[in-house]
Design a protein that fits this description.
The complex is a heterodimer of chains A (350) and B (363). Chain A has 350 residues and is mainly alpha-helical. Chain A has helices spanning 22-29, 32-67, 70-73, 103-134, 137-151, 155-178, 196-220, 224-232, 237-248, 250-266, 269-274, 293-304, 308-342; strands at 75-78, 86-89, 92-95, 99-102. In chain A, α8 runs antiparallel to α9 (237-248) and α12 packs antiparallel against α13 (308-342). Chain B is of the alpha/beta class. Helices cover 39% and strands 17% of the residues of chain B. In chain B, the strands form two sheets. In chain B, strands 1, 2, 3, 4, 6, 7, 8, 9 and 12 form a nine-stranded mixed sheet that branches. Chain B has a three-stranded mixed sheet with strand order 5-10-11. In chain B, β6 (173-177), α7 and β7 form a beta-alpha-beta unit. Classes of the chains: A mainly alpha (350), B alpha/beta (363). Chains A and B meet through β1, β3 and α12 of A and α3 and α4 of B.
């Protein structure tokens, strides 16, 4: 076929493409495409965030008006009797008896993330230090590889493990020990492997690989010279890590922790499986059933999906989660600025 | 040459149906990959919704697939709410639901039908290995258990209903569904119907704020309720009757529940039929009716519904949906299909109502 030079009649309407002319080639070479792509690429994330915020806000607006400030002060979640009377206000018609106060979910989201970070941050940084400074190179690469593999485990798998194995194990062996701590929050019925503690621990398992692998890459970048200097001054390994290595990458470490926090705040399915789903009250001890915003959305959106107020309330909930995540990010950025501005004890001029 | 070739192609085209059907009978869901109808002369009917209804729909799917090879049926257990929403949006042909459409849904989505398919029941199960005789329970005691007013199995209120049974002092652990569930709706409706002062009507629904009880546990899906209750001594749970063989295998007891006349009944075909007889005469032409707390028979029963849009995307789909539903409520409602899931067939007057509703489907 290729040897036939004549253009078939059917294609006469579509002339063959002209060879790229000089102008086009110059335009290609000038980098305009790259610039254009870069420009678009830079704007897309910004526009997406704005788009999501605007859509969520407009969707949620009637719910924001109807739920009012009670949404942030009450601990109640009544989806209403779907077979009850309907009322119309603020432009939507919905069944009466609905009442929404998201305090347990907001508190639950923050509590589980806090537990996860309290456990994950020291463990991750310790692991990263050991991998970089202590382990022989070959073993370090194996351990590092496993850390990254751990980060890649789908959260639903971790949730399954949490609900079938890890939760019951904690309830049977770990929680009874914790109840001896003389703080009221640590005392109470340890339950059967669902609740605040297990949710926090499951999140920690998911956060550790993220923080640890980032911290490892950061610590690797600390030059040898200042560390040698520290040892020469007679510092112990621990002192060297605390006074030289970690401050050197302090802002980066905070960035790593923020990454982990983002994962913890937004993690959905694993928490939904082990939290115990308690929509109406804030956990009174470490083992109580609880709920996070994300877990509530995935578990119960279905109930209200055909109710105009209910579905808008879930939009409001999503908006709250988004704002919490954005706020923590902003706070973390401020922290990073502070740390990198003044807290570096070691001169950078090395 | 051409003929065997065509045969081979036909077998190849059938293979996915057989695979899907096999999945449907063993697992809880089958993928809802729905290629556009007509591309291979096949019509695809998709169903999503109630997990209580799923075992029956899956059995129908297997049988119907062999009867009508030109119709491909996909099913998926997503929960009743999603079933209704998907059917309303037109993304699926049939939404499976444990509950009829609410007035607010009917006004939002005119042209959406709820067609009774079969009659199901909800069991109250408990894990008390020492207690062999089925326990008697009523809505008042259940409401007190689920609000934490009764915390041990040998509570006087439970003992009063079970004279002569030696009850252990085991602590009661309440299980409830963590996900949105038609079972939760039926269970809370029963408690409210029997004990409105203890269980308010604002706490009826597929998702509710459960009172905070120490050790209370939430499970996702009926299967997880069976598993969770089997693992916790002293637990109490509400599980659809289609899981009866599994709850029995897990060593769970099934409570006899008080009906409106105060008589305690075990869930069975005869008690479901007895309860049905008190309601079915008054089932409206729309098919929407609550069957909770009847004066006779087992008190927590319900119609399982197919939620269908009157106007289907094409006449081929409309015909296929009509034929499938008609087959389901007639040939599909024999003991061969209903006994394994412990459902009961529609009474004849409700069957007529369902037939009339099916006849409204068009394109």
């Amino acid at each position: 076929m290729a040897s036939v030079p004549a253009v078939p009649e059917g294609e006469a309407a579509h002339p063959p493409p002209r060879p790229a002319d000089a102008g086009f080639r110059r335009w290609m070479r000038s980098g305009a495409i790259v610039r254009w792509l870069g420009f678009t690429g830079a704007w897309i994330p910004t526009l997406m965030l704005a788009f999501i915020l605007v859509i969520l806000f407009t969707k949620a607006w009637p719910a924001i008006q109807i739920n009012g400030w009670g949404f942030f002060t009450k601990s109640v979640w009544h989806t209403g009797n779907q077979y009850g009377k309907t009322v119309t206000s603020h432009g939507i018609t919905y069944v009466e008896g609905q009442e929404y106060g998201a305090v347990p979910q907001i508190v639950g989201t923050l509590e589980t993330s806090a537990i996860a970070l309290i456990i994950a941050v020291p463990v991750s940084i310790g692991a990263a230090l050991v991998v970089v400074e202590r382990l022989p190179r070959r073993l370090a690469s194996v351990v590092g590889g496993f850390l990254e593999l751990l980060a890649g485990i789908p959260s639903v798998v971790i949730g399954l493990w949490g609900v079938l194995t890890f939760g019951p194990f904690i309830a049977k062996y770990i929680a009874p020990v914790l109840t001896h701590i003389p703080i009221p929050f640590f005392q109470g019925d340890v339950g059967h492997g669902q609740g605040l503690l297990v949710s926090g621990l499951v999140l920690a398992v998911m956060v550790i690989p993220i923080v640890a692998s980032t911290a490892r890459d950061l610590i690797r970048q600390v030059p040898l010279l200042p560390r040698e200097g520290a040892v020469a001054l007679g510092m112990s390994d621990a002192e060297c890590a605390r006074r030289v290595t970690l401050p050197w990458v302090g802002s980066g470490l905070i960035g790593a922790v923020v990454l982990g926090l983002g994962r913890a705040l937004g993690e959905t399915i694993a928490v939904a499986m082990v939290c115990g789903v308690s929509l109406g009250h804030v956990a009174t001890n470490l083992y109580d059933a609880m709920i996070t915003i994300a877990a509530n959305i995935v578990q119960n959106l279905e109930t209200v999906i055909t109710d105009p107020l209910g579905v808008r309330t879930y939009a409001e909930l999503a908006l709250v989660l988004l704002v919490i995540t954005l706020l923590t990010n902003v706070v973390a950025r401020l922290l990073v600025r502070r740390v990198s501005g003044t807290a570096l004890p070691v001169g950078r001029g090395l | 040459m051409a003929k065997p070739m065509r045969k081979l192609l036909a077998v190849a085209a059938l293979a996915p149906v057989v695979v899907l059907a096999a999945c449907g009978s063993s697992g809880s869901s089958t993928p809802t990959s729905s290629p556009a109808a007509g591309s291979s002369g096949k019509t695809t009917i998709s169903e999503t919704g109630s997990t209580l209804l799923l075992p029956l729909i899956s059995a129908w799917q297997v049988e119907y697939g062999t009867l009508k090879p030109d119709v491909l049926i996909t099913t998926s257990g997503t929960g009743s709410g999603t079933g209704i929403a998907d059917a309303a949006a037109g993304t699926v042909n049939i939404g499976g639901s444990d509950a009829y459409l609410s007035p607010s849904e009917t006004s939002q989505f005119p042209g959406l039908l709820n067609i009774p398919l079969s009659v199901a029941a909800l069991n109250i199960n408990y894990n008390l290995p020492g207690v062999k005789k089925p326990l008697n329970l009523n809505g008042t005691v259940l409401a007190k258990i689920y609000t934490g007013k009764i915390t041990a199995w040998n509570d006087p209120a439970i003992a009063a209903l079970n004279k002569g049974v030696s009850l252990p002092s085991t602590k009661i652990v309440t299980l409830h569904r963590g996900d949105s569930s038609g079972s939760t709706f039926l269970f809370t409706s029963y408690m409210n119907s029997q004990a409105p002062s203890l269980w308010s009507s604002s706490n009826i629904g597929t998702t509710i704020s459960w009172p905070n009880l120490p050790g209370a546990t939430a499970e996702t899906g009926s299967g997880a309720m069976v598993k969770g209750c089997g693992a916790i001594k002293g637990c109490i749970a509400y599980i659809g009757i289609s899981y009866l063989s599994q709850t029995t295998a897990a060593g769970l007891g099934t409570a006899s529940l008080a009906n409106k006349s105060g008589k305690f009944e075990q869930p069975s075909t005869s008690t479901i039929n007895a309860a049905l007889a008190t309601f079915s005469g008054s089932t409206p032409v729309s098919g929407s009716q609550s069957l909770i707390n009847g004066t006779a028979g087992y008190p927590i029963i319900n119609y399982e519904y197919a939620i269908v849009k009157t106007k289907q995307a094409s006449s081929a789909e409309a015909t296929a949906v009509k034929n499938f539903l008609t087959w389901g409520i007639t040939s599909g409602s024999t003991s061969k299909y209903l006994t394994p899931v412990n459902f009961v067939a529609l009474p004849s007057n409700v069957l007529t109502i369902s037939r009339n509703l099916v006849a409204k489907i068009s394109s």
